[in-house]
């Protein structure tokens, strides 16, 4: 299993617009990704699941994948760092 952790820095947290852009980014990847935060878990290809997590600025999230390539995970980590 591959994973990375990231602290959300967007002052508004992971609200509808950035969550939608994240889903769009992940849907273009072949791997399956799961995000965990404060005991909740969501498939990153499902917008409502992400929105239901209620992620706020300062929350630490863990993104995990068992079948993604290392390149995909690296691209996703860069996306988090640049946009969230």
Walkthrough of the structure:
This protein is of the alpha+beta class and 84 residues long. The protein is built from three helices and four strands. The protein has a single domain, classed as Histidine-containing Protein, Chain: A (2-Layer Sandwich). The model has no long low-confidence stretch (mean pLDDT 92).
Keywords, please?
Histidine-containing Protein, Chain: A; alpha+beta; 84 residues
The CATH architecture designation is 2-Layer Sandwich
Dominant shape: globular
How many discrete structural domains? 1
The SSE string, one letter per element, is: EHEEHEH
Point out poorly predicted stretches.
none
Q: Roughly how many Å apart are the termini?
A: 23 Å
Count of DSSP E strands? 4
Number of helices: 3
Q: Helical residue percent? A: 25-40%
Beta-strand content bin: 15-25%
Strand order of the largest sheet: 1-4-2-3
Structural class designation: alpha+beta
CATH class label = Alpha Beta
Describe the largest sheet. Answer: 4 strands, antiparallel
Q: How confident is the prediction overall: mean pLDDT?
A: 92
Q: Please compute the radius of gyration using only Cα atoms.
A: 11 Å
CATH fold call: Histidine-containing Protein, Chain: A
- Give me the CATH superfamily: HPr-like
């Amino acid at each position: 299993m591959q994973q990375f952790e990231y602290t959300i820095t967007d002052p508004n947290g992971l609200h509808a617009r950035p969550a939608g852009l994240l889903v769009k980014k992940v849907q273009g990847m072949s791997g399956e990704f799961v995000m965990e935060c404060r005991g909740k878990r969501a498939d990153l290809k499902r917008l409502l699941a992400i929105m239901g997590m209620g992620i706020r600025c300062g929350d630490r999230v863990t993104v995990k994948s068992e079948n993604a390539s290392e390149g995909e995970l690296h691209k996703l980590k860069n996306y988090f760092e640049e946009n969230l």
